[in-house]
Amino acid sequence: MLSKLTEQLEWLALRTRPDMAISLVSSIPHSLFTNLQLMRFRETLRVAARSPFYAAEFKKRNIDVRKIRHPEQLGDFYTTGKDLVTHGPEAFVVGRADTAFETTGTTSGVPKTVFFSHRELNAMGRTSALGLYQLGLRREDVVLSAFDVSFWVSPAVLRTALQYLGCFHVEAGKIPPLEFYERAKRYRPNVIFGEPSWLAQFSRIAAVEGTWPVKFLFAGGENIAEETRIEVERIWNADYYLNYGQTESFGVIGVECSEKSGYHRNDLNFLFEIVDPDTAGQGELVYTTLTREVMPLIRYRSSDITSLVDDPCPCGLFIGRIAKIVGRCDEMIVCGMGNISPWIFSEILRDVPTVTDEWQVRVWQEDYRDVVELRVETEPTNNGHTPHSVEQDIRQNLARLFPDFWNNLQMKLFDFRVTTMPRMSLRTERKLRRIVSLGSPPVEEIGSPVRSVRKSDAFTR
To answer: What is the mean pLDDT of residues 251-269?
Structure first.
């Protein structure tokens, strides 16, 4: 009853005054809000138990969903991306599907398919509309979107959200940034959506060709270095916001506010947990969908490393936050360098001139020793920055910031190589996998008499 009432009031307020909807949700007492979450969790368990996958898993583990009141009572049971790939989406479906979206497949090599209903799309659109309204989006704004339309959920959610807000919206798709720039001049959008790497390149073009007044830019789909955010904001003289979500979650899980200090989480539609947190509270984010009727997911492991923040935010929103994503479980590799994950290399590359946000680490074994190759895209420059100077800066940062890794390098426990590459050469899919374990040497390395990178023992501090 409370769940239905909340949904109906949210819908009515959004149709008339979104600020009223935000006030409405914010006015729910914390205890009542928690009870609403747990009530929806128990209902989701009962619905999910009708699917072939969960029915079999619950039976195998002797889980009686009628007795479960909280996620922790499920013990070590989780749903993984591998489950979705191995069993197929049909094993999770309990209701009639109206549409489907797919992941990029960068983690497992096989895209994961997720089914949804039109009602679920509308519900996520309403929630997203509230978040965008909070950032300042209004009916009179002109929106252009460069989100990749191919199988990705974000364009559909954004389209639905903007229908609720009544904005003028052009869905350009992920076309080359220069082409987007030339065609955007006709519409002069004051709100632009896209992926971080795409928006960075688009902004560099605008810095040369000229900008126009923009209210804010909004990105999703991948992380971004704070230095790049600052540069984009400088170019446009506007705020640049990020959101966090996954195709499996049906898009938005959390959205930044004006403070840009984590993502205000969607507690109305998800119940969040952190698995195996360290002393700082960081661990893998796990979520249970609370309002899905076609393909509910129970304790889905996101593979993203973060923490939950319940301290009040200076922006005034009552809901808690998901802290910045610091890495992925499936991109942590143990090798001669140590336990490495993407955030380490983000720190190493910080403030290195000409290096862009596009980089990738490849790890393999060669001559009985691990090789860690850091491939970085660089901007063309006339300031004397060469591949050699880029490598020197990177190695100096490695030695300064991570002395343990540096000591392992000095002891020749691994070989560290830096390869500079032209801009736009690394990314072949929507998401760029940051750390890749190759096992054996890449083809271009075998028997090559000349290398474009220098050996680790060729550099001295």
So the answer is: 89
Q: Are 136 and 191 in contact (CB under 8 A)?
A: no
Rounded to an integer, what distance in angstroms lies between the CA atom of residue 351 and that of residue 355? 8
- What gap in Å lies between CA 442 and CA 373, rounded to an integer? 11
Q: How confident is the model at residue 56 (pLDDT cuts 50, 70, 90)?
A: very high
| DSSP assignments along 235-259, one per residue | HHTSEEEEEEEETTTTEEEEE--TT
What pLDDT is recorded for position 150?
A: 84
Nearest of 416, 431, 352 to residue 386 by alpha carbon: 352
What is the per-residue pLDDT for 461? 28
Q: Indicate the SS3 state at residue 48.
A: helix
Owner of token pair 């969960």:
54
Chain centroid to CA 84: how far? Answer: 19
Tokens of 217: 């830019």
Cα-to-chain-centroid distance, residue 423: 22
Going 24 to 134 to 98 to 298, the CA torsion angle's sign is negative
CA distance 185 to 72: 53
> Which single residue is written with the structure tokens 């013990």?
75
Kindly list the distances between the CA atom of residue 212 and the CA atoms of 99, 201, 241, in Å, as whole numbers in the listed order.
37, 16, 18
Entry pTM: 0.76
Q: What's the rounded Cα separation, in Å, for the pair 339 and 46?
A: 40
Q: Are 349 and 394 in contact (CB under 8 A)?
A: yes
Distance of alpha carbon 301 from alpha carbon 79, whole angstroms = 6
CB 399 within 8 A of CB 434: no
Residue 6's pLDDT is what?
54
